[in-house]
Amino acid sequence: MSKKKNTYWKDRLYEIIYEADTPAGKLFDVVLLVFILASIILVMLESVRWIDDKYHNLLNIGEWIVTILFTVEYIARIITVKKPLKYIFSFYGIIDFLSTIPKYLSIIFAGTHALVALRALRLLRVFRILKLARYLGASNQLASAIKASRAKISVFLFAVIIASIIFGTLMYLIEGEENGFTNIPKSVYWCIVTLTTVGFGDIAPQTPLGQFLATLIMIMGYGIIAVPTGIVSAEYTKSANKTGNKNNGNHDDIQLNSQRCQNCLSTKHKDDAEYCYSCGHNLHIQ
Amino acid sequence: MSKKKNTYWKDRLYEIIYEADTPAGKLFDVVLLVFILASIILVMLESVRWIDDKYHNLLNIGEWIVTILFTVEYIARIITVKKPLKYIFSFYGIIDFLSTIPKYLSIIFAGTHALVALRALRLLRVFRILKLARYLGASNQLASAIKASRAKISVFLFAVIIASIIFGTLMYLIEGEENGFTNIPKSVYWCIVTLTTVGFGDIAPQTPLGQFLATLIMIMGYGIIAVPTGIVSAEYTKSANKTGNKNNGNHDDIQLNSQRCQNCLSTKHKDDAEYCYSCGHNLHIQ
Amino acid sequence: MSKKKNTYWKDRLYEIIYEADTPAGKLFDVVLLVFILASIILVMLESVRWIDDKYHNLLNIGEWIVTILFTVEYIARIITVKKPLKYIFSFYGIIDFLSTIPKYLSIIFAGTHALVALRALRLLRVFRILKLARYLGASNQLASAIKASRAKISVFLFAVIIASIIFGTLMYLIEGEENGFTNIPKSVYWCIVTLTTVGFGDIAPQTPLGQFLATLIMIMGYGIIAVPTGIVSAEYTKSANKTGNKNNGNHDDIQLNSQRCQNCLSTKHKDDAEYCYSCGHNLHIQ
Amino acid sequence: MSKKKNTYWKDRLYEIIYEADTPAGKLFDVVLLVFILASIILVMLESVRWIDDKYHNLLNIGEWIVTILFTVEYIARIITVKKPLKYIFSFYGIIDFLSTIPKYLSIIFAGTHALVALRALRLLRVFRILKLARYLGASNQLASAIKASRAKISVFLFAVIIASIIFGTLMYLIEGEENGFTNIPKSVYWCIVTLTTVGFGDIAPQTPLGQFLATLIMIMGYGIIAVPTGIVSAEYTKSANKTGNKNNGNHDDIQLNSQRCQNCLSTKHKDDAEYCYSCGHNLHIQ
Questions:
Q1: Residue D173: closest C-alpha in chain A
Q2: ipTM metric
Q3: Of A148, A267, B120, C124, which residue is least crowded by CB atoms under 10 Å?
Q4: CATH code of domain A2-132
Q5: Do D188 and D164 contact (CB within 8 A), yes or no?
Q6: CA–CA min distance A19, chain C (Å)
């Protein structure tokens, strides 16, 4: 697994790009984060007409700088990774591609420039990057609570959607097209807007019967919000109790890092670990 | 209770239609689910004017196919069940009838066609069907938590409604007809819209005093949402603790099935049970 | 405390009106509840213009019947109670008075009729009446959870109000009168509408800076809803645990009634108790 | 640290202004609170046009009284504190300055008067003042629960913001300028309005695809509110359990006061403490 000579720079680059436990890796992630944010701010500014009118050239140059840097990063990722195809068709691989290509396309095809906005999806990488920091403890516990209650929340959301379809259809029958409930899909849309207590008010029931049914939907929506909350609450209490039994301090964030042992694949090494806690493999020399 | 020869095909059909533990039963439920969804999508598409204008004939044919299949299913259900009248006047029996009949009525009476939308109610059957799948564990625990807190949530909703009537009446006195609070029922409706934090904005207080009272209602609504949430949360923690004490794994879904012993009527048999755990009756040979 | 002869009918009437454990007392409460509901429905119907135009005389007669019955009840309450003044100036005494008097006033003074709507406040008596029923267990536990977290919720609501004043003022400075934020009180009102996630939309920020601040307010409002919920949840879990340790059944509603021993003033007697569990005093013969 | 003679009045004044455990200190805080509230009400009234038109002179006099009193207080705070610069550049020091200066500025520069509204920030001092009262127990436990879940809530809010940027961008691509989504920042603003279930309705999706995506955002917003709630709930249960183990009464508010030992800087002394629990330094003689 480690031909030290030839592939040394590749391994080194891999460590910088894909891991974040070395100073260089951390720096790379921070710089990447800054550029992702910059690229998103650029896209945002461009979408504001008067800013685009005034600073079009400046924004365009910025766009190209970001695009070229993203291209370089994309190529580097492909070269260093052991299984390039797996990366290319992975979730992040596709996002990386989609956020780089529109600028090039915009030279050839007009009108595709708006797709640059897809770059916002790169923000998701923030999770991977920030995971390394002190939030890890928090989000891990959080993730396990959400994971444990996923099935239950699915059932819940499913029930919400079915209720919305049924009540939306009833509202369509009651209110009809003249009161803004022009068709069933729109009526279902209104029902979800109401059930989730968003309440835009672009469509609102006008007939007394419709308002009465709307009242039922609202109270239902107000009441059943308790369900997902109760689920996550309970799961979280459970998982917090488990952790709490092991170590009782308030600051139970042991600094774990995102490194994966290349020998036994075990993760969650302590931040200052030199050797894998599980198999004794040296974590830094590959 | 089991005349094996004559009624064999009936029993077999019964098992397919009403139970879901045999492969055939599962297949039937999945196919039924697909047709229910298809029928609802048809109704939705029909309600969108431009789609109906364009594809009226196609949608009409689809409607008839679905209606005939539902009719066949309805008749099969009546034939195979032991007590047909009980099924016919059961909750699902009425829904099944209501979702089949409007299409036939629409030949004779014009204008009754819109009632086809009642078919959306058939979606409720999804709960019965999906109960069998892996969600069972989740929804059972959920159901018991909701059941345990039903009385408390009733008290809560009751309080919400009384508060809405009182505040709605006060708002009517304060704001009056000129600001949209045309009568007390409408004012109560507005109050529920506000208390549940939906806030359509089709009616909004204009006088300073009305806005002040609205402020109170909103803060009250914002604060008391904690009550149902707290209740379900606590009940759920309690019921989760109970389960947690028995088996500590994360995947505590013992696969129970939806079969009912025809001898002693006990339910919740394990998935691989051959005999009723309660009376020893053979579950598969009826 | 018990001169059996003279005051027997008074005691009897007292038991009927103020308690609800005898069949007569229960009947009285149910009848009262029906009349309260009827009176409120009357007021509501009257407020709907077209109904009032059509059935004015009928509604007026209904009003008078309800008013006279309420008057009789009010007088009976004063006569039978030991300390009439205490009742008259009690919370319910004032409400009872306010819901009876407007109809009489409307003969003398025009325009006071609208105050009949104050009768909605009588609905609060529902709590006292329904307390007797099976909801008691639920609402008692609920009440103690809310009571225990009252101070904490006060702090929370206080913080919400202060945040609203501060942010409302800032929004007034940022948006100004031309965008609907005409003065600080209105701006604070808008801020509460936003913070509680009601969002009427009658006023909405128009400037980018205002929208940015609104974003902060909304996210804050969305996040801090967790605080009261968490508080009530925890208190409720605590109080549920206490009860749970004593009796572990799901249906832990022992039927307690609202009677108070006239000897030792202890409450929460079991529904079938003949003698006070604390001092042995006969509960029914006074 | 204590030259008793010369600086006696300073120490005394310090105790009155900065601490709240002596009667004089309590009185000062209450009076200050009253003046802060009065000053805010003045600012509010001034912002209402018709009130300002009618009572301009009265309000102006009130303003000057409050401003002069605040100036005196500000100077007193600077004189008595040991490190004036630290106070001046502290959070409260800056707020105190900002809420005093605008009135003076308004003599010289026109148009700066509106900044008087910044005085609302002084309301934050309420927390410091009320902390002393019986709410202490409540807010301490609350604060520790929020503190413990701060990291987790940050992760959550972070996720909300990222989701808003991504979905906002998608909505901009789908709906476009003609439906009110004029640029990406506005679109992100709309997305936060929707995700937090506020739903102003000033902008609302018009296209079916936009409405579908909006539906997803709403259900997501409705579902993920469970996350912060669950977190605070669990943390609060945990911290309540800890306290509950030590003393089981309902009123577990040990009266701690806001005094800080001038020797070892330890806080949270019991209300009746004469000597620092940590270093034995006399708390009252400085």
A1: A114
A2: 0.76
A3: A267
A4: 1.20.120.350
A5: yes
A6: 32
Check CB contact under 8 Å for B142 and A183: no
Judge if pTM exceeds 0.95.
no
Domain boundaries in chain C? 2-132, 139-248
Chain D residues with beta carbon closer than 8 angstroms to that of C184: 43-44, 47-48, 117
CA A133 – CA A129 distance, rounded (Å): 8
User: Which other chains touch chain D, taking contact as 3+ CB pairs less than 8 Å apart?
Assistant: A, B, C
Cβ of residue B255 closer than 8 Å to a chain A Cβ? no
Residue B108: predicted pLDDT? 83
CA distance A257 to A270: 6
Given a contact cutoff of 8 angstroms between Cβ atoms, the answer to whether C257 and C132 are in contact is yes
Q: How far apart are CA B150 and CA B154, in angstroms?
A: 6
CA–CA dist C129, C27 (Å, integer): 11
- Over the stretch C43-74, which tens digit does the pLDDT of each residue have? 889 888 899 899 999 999 998 999 999 999 99
Answer yes or no: do B138 and A155 touch at CB < 8 A. yes
Q: How far, in whole angstroms, is CA C88 from its chain's centroid?
A: 18
The answer to whether A146 contacts D235, with C-beta atoms less than 8 Å apart, is: no
Same fold: B2-132 with B139-248: no
Point out the residue among B200, B201, B229 whose CB comes nearest to the CB of D229. B229
A40 touches chain D (CB under 8 A): yes
Which residues of D fall within a CB distance of 8 Å from C157? Answer: none
Chain segment D238-276, per-residue pLDDT in tens: 766 665 444 333 333 334 445 555 555 545 444 444 555
Q: Does C118 touch chain B (CB under 8 A)?
A: yes
Question: How many Å apart are CA B196 and CA B190, to the nearest integer?
Answer: 10
Phi-psi region of A176 (alpha: psi -120 to 50; beta: other; left: phi over 0): left
Query: pLDDT digits over A42-78, tens only?
Result: 888 988 889 989 999 999 999 899 999 999 999 998 9
Q: Is A197 on the interface with C (CB under 8 A)?
A: yes
Assess D222–A contact: CB distance below 8 Å, yes or no. yes
The tens-digit pLDDT sequence of chain D (286 residues) is 445 556 678 888 888 887 767 888 888 888 888 888 898 898 889 888 899 899 999 999 998 999 999 999 999 989 888 888 888 988 888 888 888 888 888 888 776 777 777 788 887 777 666 554 444 455 566 667 667 777 777 777 777 888 898 899 889 989 988 888 998 999 999 999 999 989 998 889 999 999 999 999 998 888 778 777 777 777 777 766 665 444 333 333 334 445 555 555 545 444 444 555 555 555 554 4
Chains touching C (at least 3 CB pairs under 8 A) are A, B, D
A156 three-class SS: helix
Contacts of C197 (CB under 8 A, 6+ apart): A197, B197, B199, B222, C218, C221, C222, C225, D196, D197, D198
d(CA A47, CA A30): 26
Taking domain A139-248, whether its CATH number is 3.30.365.10 is answered by no
C199 interfacial to chain A (CB closer than 8 Å): yes
Of D146, D160, D196, the CB nearest to C197: D196
Q: Please identify which residue in the block is written with the tokens 């016919």.
A: B88
Chain A, window 17-36: residues with a beta carbon less than 8 angstroms from a chain D beta carbon: none
